[in-house]
Amino acid sequence: MDNQRLFLYTALGLITFLIYLTWQQTYHPPQPPAIVETIGAEGQGVVAGSQAVGGSASNVGDLPIAAGSANTSAVSAEVAKGEKRVSVKTDVLDIQLSSIGGTLTNVNLLDYSVSLEDQETPFALINNEPLDLLVAESGLQSRQGTSAPTHKEPMAVEQESYELGDAEELKVPFTWASDDGVTVTKTYTFRKDSYVIDVDYAIDNQSSEPYVVNQYRQLKRKPGTKDEKQQFVNTYIGAVVSNDEDRYQKVDFGDIEDENFNQDATNGWVAMIEHYFATAWVPDPGEKNSAYSLFVENQNPADYNHYVIGLVSSSQSIAPGAQGAFHTKAFAGPKIQDMMAEVAPHLELTVDFGFLTIIAKPIFLLLKFIHGFVGNWGWAIILTVFVIKALLYKLSEAGYKSMARMKKLQPKMAALKERHGDDRAAMGQATMEMYKKEKVNPLGGCLPMLVQMPIFIALYWALLESVELRQAPWILWIEDLSIRDPFFILPVLMAAAMYFQQKLNPAPTDPIQAKVMQFLPLIFGVFFALFPAGLVLYWVVNNILSIAQQWYITRIVIGVTDE
User: Fold this and answer.
1) 92-110 per-position pLDDT tens digit
2) Which letter, b or e, does each residue of 402-422 get, where b requires 16 or more Cβ atoms within 10 Å of its Cβ?
3) Could you tell me the domains of the chain?
4) Which of 94, 100, 205, 505 has the fewest CB atoms lying closer than 10 Å?
5) Global confidence as pTM
């Protein structure tokens, strides 16, 4: 098989692979008929099981895993009766908390706008609107049938507006008290320049009986219109669970719909992730927890199905007159790897580079390092190409030398074809004998291209998954490297560069194959028009440098040493 045919097959294989990625759905989109309250008339949850005090959290108890407070109903936009909204503003977050359970109902990311066209509106990561539902619920659960501050219980608030200002830390308390003398203070702690929110429960048991409780935390989600999807490949949107056994386990909406699960999550976390952002509950290290999921199908056509992923801890028994405490962390922000790695082990894996992570991660680190000097992601991509081409130069040199030798054999190949006509067996045997006599490896010219394929795919995922490139400009008409070129200039340049590069290669002897090769740059140009501009920029620069390398090696290196 000659170089051109292998190139053709590889190119078509790449197109097929990327089309497969386009149509492969990483989750089964839910059909909207539904949200139902999962707390029954008795206030009991829908997940069965039990937990021993202080023991393992391997069994999920009677959790109040509800659809949330009344404000999630699509029938009415009115807040629940008696509910108060508490506004909290930091330097990076604009938040609303509900007095019903102290629930995180809204989190707007002040440093990330909705779109280039709407720079004034911050991206809403957590939202209690029915069509884009994602809320972070947490609460305590009693094991004795006594009352507890679940996310359905009204809580008292000291004030309805807080602002971090110039302070380093801001605390927002909610208070709940039972009729028999148990008081619980739920305190949110916000910090400057941080997407991590600490949640603390201080329990004061002044009743006459031991108070046995555990904490639970859950994320309730309905896939909605706010999910940012790429124009070519949809990145994963759904739940993730991490523990000691499996650092990064996807639990997509189809899996949740098929079957609820309950598994150990000690030293782990749960999250709902989308393209560039993540929301996660992170317990303390060593705390015994179980992860659970729940699919809630509503019977009301006006409402919607939703999906729950959560954690439940083992219980504490608080003696009469004693105090107890629980602590957890919530993360709601962009998927910046360094920052997420500091929040919890393996949380940075939510930046999913796919099966070529071993290549994609070093490429991203190189991009980030160069960006630290040039301050522009477009120029960082260009300089990264230079670095990769320099590292692969010797391999490219060997490949281009082989291609040059093959080009010199074109007249002899034509003569063999004329001599043997349609006798493919004789033609193949004569060709191999000629290769052996001339000491030419017909596959030698393919090595640079074959090495480029995994690098290309790895870079694709690095550019696709990195929030740093979201709305990142390059120059002139390229205002966002993470979406396609609006005027298709880069795809045209890429097709032109590919055409000129073909002219440097030996032409195929098969006329049909030659015609297909002529159309290949056009096919790739149309195909790449759908790709993020940053990836097309990489390919344009790579092709231009490849042309320069091939010309230099063929005309200068080989022209001096081989002829």
Assistant:
1) 999 999 999 999 999 999 9
2) bbbbbbebeeebeebeeebee
3) 3-20+360-561 (no CATH), 31-352 (2.70.98.90)
4) 94
5) 0.77
